[in-house]
Fold this protein.
Amino acid sequence: MPNAKIAGIGYYVPENKVTNNDLARVMDTSDEWIQERTGIVERRYAKKHEESTTTMGVEAAKIAIERAGITNEDIDFIIFATLSPDYYFPGCGVLLQREMGMLGVGALDIRNQCSGFVYGLSIADQFVKSGMYKNVLLVGSEFHSMGLDFSTRGRNVTVIFGDGAGAVVVQPTEEEGKGILSTHLHADGTYAEKLAYINPGSHAGKWEDKERFGYPDVEFGGAFLTQKMWDDEDLFPNMEGQAVFKMAVQKFPEVIMEALQTNGLQPEDIDMLVPHQANLRISQFVQRRMKLRDDQVWNNIQKFGNTTAASIPIALCEAWEQGAVKDGDLVCLAAFGSGFTWGSALIRW
Ligand code: COA
């Protein structure tokens, strides 16, 4: 059975840079607070009415496909990871497919938030290894800035997130020992509401949510979106930052070690760790815990913020473009986020 490899990679970030001081104009925050707690200096915001999660994904996908040395017609399966889709349904997978003219091939959307890319890579890996598909396009893209609370109430979440997209083409490789060595996926739904965007949704089914969110007391029907959600401005993501932080610094090292142990390797064997860019403080904590040098970890959250499903492919692509990921390198991808879900992938580049 051949291994699967990343044959092409690309990323796209919107031009518009938004600094911490720009945010401090609309909410009670400061450059100092944001940099100290998250490491973020600026992030990109997509152009409303011009760009979407899908169009950003398309831009990243075009680069990945070209670098894989194939054309759109060669793609035989699409996986799209996002938490900020253009539509509630259908997913961005079919929208990207329509834009790129790959009609007829399967398109799968996955909703695993910050670990969406690692989950997607694992799915692509299984499909390619099994021989079912030869060119899987995996895209992670987010348009967070459309759905954040820019009042002071939302500041703990809003300052963290940015927009952008990354994409890879996964293909079989005949090279012995090369490509995706293993992937490891985990989840614990106990913490589902600790980092969540719950409205609009169908959770009227939960009795305690009926009054709180103003779901109408009708025998049939209702709506995912209620007037009360609008009136209470209860339409934004919420996060218990400290709970997320605590769990992240435990699960990142755990799942990285799981990948290494599966392959009989040690932290010192890693040439490049590309962690999901959740928060620079989390990455630094993980680096210290794993006793990795600065040149073994790629961080770019300072420039782009946390771009959820797009963060790993953006960071991996940047590292590769700058020559920090080279042929034969051992690359480890690791993610943690809402769900909670977490995962890792070990790749011999
Ligand atoms: N600017 C200024 N003050 C802010 C703020 C902001 N953007 N966000 C929160 N605060 C305030 C709070 O209101 C609170 O004020 P109070 O003490 O007067 O009540 C104070 O800062 C401390 O809030 P707290 O939430 O305890 O801060 P923290 O030290 O936990 O830092 C996070 C907040 C979000 C930076 C931190 O919890 C974190 O990084 N968590 C992980 C988040 C993450 O990685 N998410 C992505 C996961 S994929």
